[in-house]
Specification:
- The protein is α+β, with helices and mostly antiparallel strands.
- It has helices spanning about 20-35, 35-50, 50-55, 60-70, 85-95, 150-159; strands at about 75-80, 105-110, 135-140, 140.
- The chain has six helices and four strands, in the order ααααβαβββα.
- A four-stranded mixed β-sheet has the order 2-1-3-4, sandwiched between helices.
- The longest helix is centred in the first third of the chain and has 16 residues, at about 20-35.
């Protein structure tokens, strides 16, 4: 068997997204989670390479379009500080997960892991009054942190 001169690349999405569209989507989310704009630039370059095809055949580029939506949208950034097994943390997570927000960036950590995590969204965050606490942010500007499900729901409903 001969070695091909060019490795074939399927850019269109089918029942399974193309590897390139999946990579672009993940790079955008990762860029926003760890605040690395280089990843976002790589994803943007990949999207530009199929820009004309997305316009002409949108039905064949669904995951690419999801990546594009993620790229051009202002993400909702949510940091949760609390133990996952805690009933109060679960109540807060239920409020977050029961709302449709496809471009949200969600980061969760236990209170005692503060020195081990270097994700900008989680940096310098702590619980309030020892209760699980949620920080809701846009463009790294956060609302007042809350630790009650009703207060969290009120904030998310306004966004």
């Amino acid at each position: 068997q001969e070695t091909p001169l060019v490795r074939p690349r399927n850019t269109s999405d089918n029942a399974v997204p193309s590897g390139s569209s999946a990579a672009a989507f993940v790079l955008i989310r990762l860029a926003r989670l760890i605040d690395n704009r280089d990843y976002e630039r790589v994803a943007a370059t990949a999207m530009r390479s199929v820009q004309e095809l997305m316009v002409r055949y949108p039905h064949a580029f669904g995951h690419w379009l999801c990546a594009l939506d993620s790229y051009i949208s202002k993400p909702l950034e949510i940091a949760v500080i609390g133990k996952p097994e805690d009933v109060a943390t679960k109540s807060l997570m239920r409020v977050i997960n029961n709302r449709y927000s496809p471009n949200k960036i969600l980061a969760v950590r236990k209170p005692e892991e503060a020195s081990q995590i270097d994700t900008p969204l989680l940096r310098d965050r702590s619980t309030i009054d020892g209760k699980p606490t949620v920080y809701v942010c846009e463009d790294r500007v956060c609302k007042i942190p809350v630790n009650e499900p009703d207060a969290l729901a009120a904030i998310l409903d306004k966004l």
